[in-house]
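Hey,

The postdoc asked me to send both predictions to you directly instead of through the lab channel. I've kept everything plain text so nothing gets mangled by the mail client. Protein one:
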Amino acid sequence: QVQVAESGGGLVQTGGSLRLSCSASGLTFDDYAMGWFRQAPGKEREGVSCISRTGGSTYYADSVKGRFAVSRNNAKNTMYLLMNSLKPEDTAMYYCAADLTRGYCSGSWRWGTGFGYWGQGTQVTVSS
């Protein structure tokens, strides 16, 4: 049984930092590219970042580039998202998921194409 779980969210002031974790079990973690996504109330889901199965390639949404950093530890079946210089517009539920079709980040990763095994999400709230 595949389980994916996000953790590390919370309430932080503008300019603060958080590190999210995504742990997975029941799948061969290092077979898959992994992604972070977020969804704010009333808005569509947004692709935040994608990391290839080896961690050698990473991609970011323009809105977070230079502030967020994605990484993974395949020995621990865990992916991370370090979020710095947080802004109120970063407030959202953050989800992680595995790209079940490939080990690299496709050109359509930001739309979640091919991603499955979604976690329950972790809430990030940035106060102004």
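Protein two:
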Amino acid sequence: VQLQASGGGLVQPRESLRLSCVPQGIISGIRVMSWYRQSAGNERDLVASLTAGRYRTYADSVKGRFTISSDSRKNAVYLQMDSLNHEDTALYYCKFSTAWGDIWGQGTLVTVSS
């Protein structure tokens, strides 16, 4: 099963974007849904995670600005990003941690530029 990530784009500072990650096929045993990001020259870092559909964690740099959510019917995960700034520019990846291992989506590029 592949994960299809979308929603990236070019925005100005203080604007918003909503990323989506939808599995292309049937998937079960999802334990954790996560969003990571990787900017040029840096490692891939955890941005937000959602465990068992209820427990949310966020990187300190995005707390209060980003919100992770899911749609259990679609097994989709979303990342609402508000008050974007230049430091949020990165390639964003979704990841599902399942009972059978991790599945990564392809990246979707978010560029924040004035």
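Summary for protein two, as requested: The radius of gyration is 13 Å.

Thanks,
C.
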